[in-house]
Model the fold of this input.
Amino acid sequence: MNKNSSNTMALAPNTSSKRETVCIFGTGDFGRALGHKMIQSGYPVVFGSRSTQTSSLIPKGAEVFSHAEAAQKAAIIIIAIQRQHYNFLIPLAEILHGKVLVDVSNNLKINQYPESNAEYLAQLVPSAKVVKAFNTVSAWALQSGTLDASRQVFVCGDNMEAKQMVMDIVRALGLTPVDQGSLLAAQEIENYPLQLFPMWKFPILLSLGLTAFFFFYCLARDVIYPYVYENKDFSFFIAISIPNRVCPILALILLALVYLPGVLAAIIQLYRGTKYRRFPDWLDKWMLCRKQLGLVALAFASLHVLYTLLIPTRFFVRWRISSRIISQALNNKTEPLNTTNAWLSDSYLALGILGFFLFVLLGITSLPSVSNNVNWREFRFVQSKLGYLTLILCTAHTLVYGGNRFLSPSSYRWYLPNAYMLSLIVPCIVLVVKFVLIFPCLDKPLMRIRQGWERNPQYSEQSNYIINKSAV
Done:
């Protein structure tokens, strides 16, 4: 479900001073919060309840009646009760005939029932017009007014007039209705609040796995190896040094993984000679979570910057510098300035600063508030062109950092290379393949394919025939 749907109906609410009465079945937390918000927006509200006694919890200005009496006073009835209690509506079927029933319920599990709650409600009261809405807004958000994180309200229903009436109420409450189509979309809408960061699952699990691998890899090389062979205790490296090696490694690898699926997609399209065949499911899912991978990579890069800024304050670093100065003083000699190392050091830092600056720029432009204010060409330029430039700078930053140590035997402890060497594998593959793909002999056919050209049009005709036949 796309929260940024093109069907978003962000029109101005009805400013008419006279609003029709709305009935709410259920006096629980959500029903009361929604009723209070509607009264504030100028709607007369009546509650239908098993107990008609007025309670101090009922919003001021609302009336409480029996279900039958309340239903007769309004054309729109909000069902703010759980699915297992819907059976009480069956005896009221005659009273509910032609009325708009708004189902706001959620389940405890994804796909808990064969059909959605809204579809089940429509089966129980077939003469009513059922609309699904408000299930993505919490009672707490309605009461506190902090609706920034839940301003969109997904709406679906088979009757356009009933759906429009509900969307008018949504706008009047200061929310944004998003039309999701027919009642068949209700199950997807009901599943949405139950999903826990659906697009973040793969990036987070991948990051945790890579973090664990590189942490123990660095632990073996930088702590265990010196202790076994040199009898030196560097266990304190676990606090700062090892994390400061793992974070940039993860940032570089995850940034490369943001652009790797695009390269793979280009290769697949060139091989197939068409853009009208679906990518493999794993590639589809990978491409959908590229934004999340990039944001996780930016988080690791930010941690690397913070850890690096702490280096001069570390006791170990200050001890090593002072020991070196004292050693030179005792030996009455100084080391001459090595301009080569000075160039490498400054170049390494400059590349890192520029890479991180562009990294932050990529993260900022991925924010909805920013991306919604740029056109597609501008967004593509930042995320693609500047994205690859960021990858180049960060890869060069790593190469300059340890380029002179690749062939040094001392860099291979237990025949294991430095961890940063491993981090260069994926970004170098991505950059090399991308460099090959921009050759005119490959770029021009790829551009034609993405504009609709096909090497074998018969496949497209066969696909269209199958699609059209299945739609009949």
In short: Residues 1-16, 465-472 have pLDDT under 50 and may be disordered. The chain is about 55% helix and 5% strand. The CA atoms of residues 40 and 85 lie 29 Å apart.
